[in-house]
Amino acid sequence: MPKTVLIVDDHAGFRGFARRLLEAGGYTVVGEAPDAASAIAAVQALQPELVLLDVLLPDTDGIAVAELLAENDGGPEVVPRVGKRWNSERGSSAAERAASSARTT
User: Fold this and answer.
1) CB 63 within 8 A of CB 97
2) How far apart are CA 52 and CA 78, in angstroms?
3) For residue range 55-92, what is the model confidence (pLDDT) as tens digits?
4) Residues 6+ apart with CB under 8 A from 22
């Protein structure tokens, strides 16, 4: 089971909530990122085992980030997160891409 986590979400309140929840569950949160660019830099610098990744980020969608991270052998597992802002206009194909890009154990 992965123990180090990077939280990627543009809402600081959610990042704080997720940090508290994960730490209470025994995970070590090694960092937080509010957007895709920061997330990619943080993955390279911090080498987390798992990335909790918001699908809707301000600078690019999280699905593209998940696809990029999946290209690297030995990269982190990715758990895509879909929040309340998700709607049917974004389509099930985007959700399917996120699921197929995520590394699973």
Assistant:
1) yes
2) 6
3) 999 999 899 999 999 998 888 999 999 876 555 445 44
4) 5, 7, 29, 52
Tracing tokens 């709607």 back to the chain, one arrives at 87
27: DSSP letter = -
Radius of gyration in angstroms for the set of CA atoms belonging to the chain, rounded to a whole number: 13
User: Rounded to whole angstroms, how far apart are CA atoms 33 and 43?
Assistant: 10
Q: Domains of the chain (ranges plus CATH)? A: 4-101 (3.40.50.2300)
* Longest CA–CA separation in the chain, Å: 37
Which amino acid appears at position 44 of this protein? Q
Give CA–CA dist 86/69, Å, rounded: 22
Between helix 92-101 and helix 62-70 the angle, nearest 10°, is: 30
